[in-house]
Amino acid sequence: MDISSGLPGVFSGRGVATVILKRKRQILYTFGLTVVLVIAGSYVVPLQFSVFSTIYVRRNLPPTPNLSPAYHVVLERQEVITSEVEVIKSRAVGERVADILLARGDEPKKRALKWQFLITARAAVKRLKSQIEGFFLSLGLVNLASPREVMIKAIRDNLTVKPVVNSDIITIAYKSSDPNFAAVVVNTVTRVYIAQAHLLANREGLYDFYSEQLEISKANIKTLENKVQSIKRRGSIVSIDEQIKLKLQELSALNTQLNQMQGERMEITRKVATLNEQIQNQPDEVLSTTASRPNPRIEQMNARLLDLEMDKAKRLEVFTPVTRKIKEIDEAMDRIREKLAKEPLTVVDTQTMAKNPIRESLTVALYQAEADLNAKSARESILARNIEQLKAELRQLDEDAARLREITAAIGAAEKSYTRYVDQREDARMAAASDPKTTNVRVIHHASVPETPVYSRMFLIQIGALLGLVMGIGVAFLSELFDDSANDKKDDVEHPVNLPVLATVPENTFAREGK
Fold first, then answer.
1. Which residues contact 151 (CB under 8 A, 6 or more apart)?
2. DSSP strand E in 14-65: where?
3. Contacts 24+ apart (CB under 8 A), 198-202
4. Among 381, 148, 123, 420, which Cα is nearest to 265's?
5. For 68-93, what is each residue's pLDDT tens digit?
6. In whole angstroms, what is the distance from residue 210 CA to residue 426 CA?
């Protein structure tokens, strides 16, 4: 049978309900078996207890007290915390913890069982495990480890070290079926880690190194002081600052005069441009006197108008006023009157020209403005040269002052280095003789014996019940998908062959029994 042909029907809403009702016994059996196994396992397998301690690593605090910041370089949080986590998880810490626990005889204790059948089951599982390990050992597939190595591996495997996000806090956790042993392991790991961190912070040979640096720094200071004395003997270096101050005041005054001169020059330049524009707009000569006479065109048009009036009077004797001839005469007379209204009464007869006095006065003003502009430009050039010369003198003074400041700063830095080396040599001496308890690591919370396990039996039983239900339904669906038999259900016949059922015949039990 094609399994995929039955998938749509099985996973439809009706198909799911049909499968659950059809396979309900199988689901219940699987569910019950899973719950029973989980309950038995929760009593046979010991519950796990989680114990943790919390430590705080101060990055801005030296690993040993009274150390200067120069001795201890503050690193980034991620770099520091990651390094500390790796130190805690290192084999060196695991070996030291295992040695301490074995020396004291601390081992995880088995929990006593109340019921005999659980004791028997645990013993059987233990014997089976021992036999399997012995078989593998005889074949050379596994190696027999010493109790110390077993302890180290158990500590490193069950130890969890996690930094708190965006903080300088680290959590050390350990899981075991014995809560007392778990607390002992976590506290021992914490103490061993603090001692190991202190050991890593100590740096040997620093005292001698800083002693050598002190001698070098002392010689450097002496050399710089000799250079200062040599420069002071060559000239009056002490008065450079006062000279720079006076030169700056003079430069400020010259810049003010230059700005004022540039403003005046720009104003005169605009005045010259304006005068040139005005002169271009003025003619060389202007009209001085004018003689006029009557306009001859007016006399001509008046004579023509008189002729038309006389012609009109004659024609009115023959024609009426509305005739075309009379209207043409009226229109001609109207045109002549319009032209008369536009013609001037007199016309120019003779004109006399003379020099333009406005142009002459503008020309005189232009010559004066150009003379002022040339004077301002010359003064501006002189001021610019003086300013450049003064700037050159200031640059020379700045170079001399910078040289003196450079030597003075070098002396100050050398003296600071000398003082720092003195402090660092003392810090190195104190760090070599400091107590391991005085570190930059602080224990916020020591591990204590927990009263409740990580997961209670009720929680495990609930998870087992949910798992049993899921497994029961899953087994039911798998059984339904791989079942080739056809029952008396209509869907069992239609889905495999993908054909509809046309009719059903009821079973005749009487005929089968011969009745």
1. 98, 101, 102
2. 49-57
3. 198/63, 198/64, 198/434, 198/436, 198/438, 198/439, 199/436, 200/87, 201/63, 201/64, 201/431, 201/439, 201/440, 202/64, 202/431, 202/432, 202/434
4. 381
5. 554 445 556 777 788 888 888 888 88
6. 9
CA atoms of 48 and 207, how far apart (whole Å):
50
Report the C-alpha gap between 50 and 426 in whole angstroms.
Answer: 45
Tokens of 487: 């029952």
Q: Note the Cα 162 to chain centre separation in Å.
A: 26
- Tokens 């089951």 correspond to 121
Tens of pLDDT, residues 233-242: 654 555 667 7
CA dihedral 429, 435, 436, 441 (to 10 degrees): -90
Q: pLDDT band for position 7 (50/70/90)? A: very low
Is 179 within 8 Å of 444 (Cβ atoms)?
no
Confidence of residue 510 (pLDDT cuts 50, 70, 90): very low
Cβ–Cβ under 8 Å, residues 454 and 48: yes
For 398-453, the DSSP string reads HHHHHHHHHHHHHHHHHHHHHHHHHHHHHHHHHHHT--TTSSSEEEEE-----SS-
**Whole-number Å distance between alpha carbons of 319 and 329:** 12
pTM over 0.85: no
Do 49 and 450 contact (CB within 8 A), yes or no?
A: yes
Cα distance between residue 195 and residue 191, in whole Å: 6
